[in-house]
Amino acid sequence: MMAYKKRHDNRAVDETRPIIAKAGVIKKADGSAYFSIGKTAAYAAVYGPREMHPKFMQDARRGVLRCNYNMMPFSGMGERVRPGPNRRSKEISMVTEKALLPVVDLDDYPYAVVDVFIELPQTDAGSRCAGICAAAIALADAGIRMKDMVAAVSVGQVEDLLVVDLDYEEEAHEEGDVADIPLAMIPSTGEITLLQMDGKITKENLLKAIALGKPVLQRIAEIQRKALKEKFDNHGDNNE
Amino acid sequence: MNEELKEHISECLKSGIRLDGRGLEDLRNIEIEANVIETAEGSCRIKCGMTEVIVGVKLSVGTPFGDTPDDGVLMVGAELLPLSNPDFESGPPSIESIEVARVIDRGIRESKVIDTKALCITKGEKVWMVMVDICPINTDGNLIDIGSLAAIIALKSATFPEMKDNIVDYKKKTKKPLPLKNFPVTATVVKIGSNFIVDPTEAEEKAMDSRLTVSVTADGKICAMQKGGNEPCTIGDIERMIDLATAKSEELRRHIGG
Amino acid sequence: MGLLVKERSVVVPGEVLAEGLDFLPSNGTYRHEEKILANQLGLLVVDGKVLKTIPLSGRYLPKKNDIVIGRVMDITMMGWRFEINSPYTSLLSMKEGSFDFIPKNANLSKYYALDDHAVLEIIKVTSQNLVDLTAKGPGLRKLKGGQIIKVNTHKVPRIIGKKGSMVSMLKKATGCKIIVGQNGLVWVQGEPKSEILAVDTIHKIESESHLPGLTERIKSHLEQTLGIKIEAEPDQPEEER
Fold first, then answer.
1. Taking the complete model, does pTM exceed 0.90, yes or no?
2. φ and ψ at residue A52, rounded to 5 degrees
3. What CATH number is attached to the domain comprising A29?
4. ipTM computed for the complex
């Protein structure tokens, strides 16, 4: 087998797959968005702030952010995904919440909840990052006060290459060290709000991979902001 | 339901007009796009008014049921995603989503649109399983008719994945379509007061007295039905609802093509 | 240095609006080091040295003296609980429910039944976001017939128009009764066709209100649809956004 010196789809190491972002795609939601990167696509809808049920989960100091990540049954690369929550989706929901929480200001909404529903119609790796990108746009679209967007992308290593936005084929690469590192960042401060990794990588390469991702995350944040602005072009009516 | 609003919708219908400006028997504009999901073997995105649904078909190999050893398996699921509507809740499927799935399932199953015998790989051991999942993105009523139409188009767009040494390779799709014939179309008629309407919006569904869903085969026979709503219907009502549903099913059938 | 974004443009969270120390942050903006950034989706307003935004979205937060439209969601010993399209529900006590004396064991459904809609005024909002309503006041009442539509709360001032000019033009042109709640619920009642036109026009105002020339556009929309001429109301400069 040839060493992995060039990406299988000819992308530059710091090049993401094509991104499409739209705000306001779900009419009944208070805020919503669509974000796709290559063949990975995510919808996010924000409902709230609204009354929090169950009541014991209410917080008297501030509103609660509650995220829910879900793959549609036909969205996986292999067999049908059984509908409903599982351990994986619960964990991703939790890390998504934690990725977004640092920018979101819910102090005005004690006892209330802001629900974020993320649905993946189609995935090809990087689905939690796409979900976070969509969710950040949707939260802004819902008029939630937030000091910045949160942009997310995976970075990592595929054999000899440090790359951004691994697709499934790269994640599943079997030669050499392969590492997949989902990363989320607050663009204005450069702080990291999501960091996970599986695979194998040296500390040096990890830091290099993160450094490679930083400017990419800035570009993604620009795409997110542009999506919000575009909603108000042509009569502000993105839904018809 | 707010009685005042129900009364109001009913009053409007008497003058032959609906709250969104449609006539009683007008369908909303429908847009269809097939093969929108690459991870599915077949798929369809449908927009009807404000309602928008994605349907995906997954194929896999499994064991047949004991009483039908040489028949493939069909499964239809629907989830009223809380993403699409503030009234839908997370958690186990609600009775509403179960009804949507079951009624769509019945229309497909009973029309015999899928030749399940042709899905048999090894009798009693291996058959193809066809799993149709209906996921609404935006909801504004009539999920049954819209989901049914999308399910048929998704099935029509589906092709088998490659199978090597009895293992499915989902990355490689063949050009072989599913064994389909005689497509069914499902149409629902809703009764509010003394008026009958088709393609109801969410507000109209909330105001309905009764509902009849009728699945019609290509040769014009009825293959499945479901009465809904809390009020009873007279036989005369039912006859009228079947006539209207059948007429509308022909209109909807044009979207299936060939 | 200085202002980086044009006044009245749509700004989004994290967008850098100005650099240097010439400007001060206010609603919807904040300072981070030497920059001022937006922290809410909105339209940028430059008020002297102050940078603030007018929100374009977000749910209604109850405010004292607001006229709102609510729906009865529960009837309790104390009165009625109303859903007012906000994160917080609100209470209409027996005392505030009617000018008439309501005896202790009265059937409260006679006044407001479950799912009834009413126009009410907010008389109190506590720090815990408990909201008290009254039905005693001019124009406050139970709503009969008609339909209720939901609009973006932040567009309510545009639907009402300056001194009520927009909504009165709409009422006059369509012959509909219209009540606009500050909480983004609008009640419309009229002949079916005019009601549909009124609802349609309200949604048009909602989606086009950030674009200039709104009153003119809405006026000609109504004129064209109805085939009539609407007399210009006096005193109608372009409204405040």
1. yes
2. -90, 125
3. 3.30.230.70
4. 0.94
